[in-house]
Amino acid sequence: MTTALWNDLAPAPRPAGWGAATHVAAGLWRIADPRGVVVGHVRAIAADDGWRYAAERFHATTGRFRRLGEFWSSNDALECLRYAR
Fold it and tell me: What residues does 28 pair with on adjacent strands?
């Protein structure tokens, strides 16, 4: 028997062959590239029309995550993290 760690309603992002998504909290996934280097987070945000997905990247100078953008598709948030390096 398996037990879910979080009761998530948002669909998980699926990196299309370039990395991996690890579920780390309710509505939050850590995204790593093929080498295993963490490139950021994708956060699910409930909206009236469904789910929005925010791409976030750690900013070392401030010690906080910065939101790169919000998207209607988890694939778009993943692509933002992939190419905004």
Answer: 25, 43
Question: Which residues have CB under 8 Å from 8's CB, separation 6+?
Answer: 23, 26, 27, 44
In terms of Cα–Cα distance, which of 81, 56, 77, 70 is closest to 13? 77
Distance of CA 26 to the CA centre of its chain: 11
pLDDT at 3: 42
Q: What is the pTM of this model?
A: 0.83
**Contact yes or no for 21/50 (Cβ under 8 A):** no
Cα distance between residue 17 and residue 22, in whole Å: 14
For the chain, list residues with pLDDT below 70. 1-8
Residue with tokens 């010690």: 63
DSSP bridge partners of 7: none
